Amino acid sequence: MTRQTLEGTSRKRKRVSGFRVRMRSHTGRRVIRSRRKRGRARLAV
């Protein structure tokens, strides 16, 4: 079976767009806030 050409690693995903990374910056917190407002089940990766 062939694999997808674009594949990220889970470590990279966490480091770039995990919850704790989002909470570090002002804009990241804004992202979390807007996703909460919208009613997302998953706020971050």
From TrEMBL:
Got a GO cellular component term for this one? ribonucleoprotein complex
Per the record, where are the segments of Basic residues compositional bias?
11-25
Can you say what this protein is called? Large ribosomal subunit protein bL34
Q: Which UniProt keywords apply?
A: Ribonucleoprotein, Ribosomal protein
Q: Which Pfam families match?
A: Ribosomal_L34
- InterPro entries from the UniProt entry: Ribosomal_bL34
Q: Where is this region: Disordered?
A: 1-25
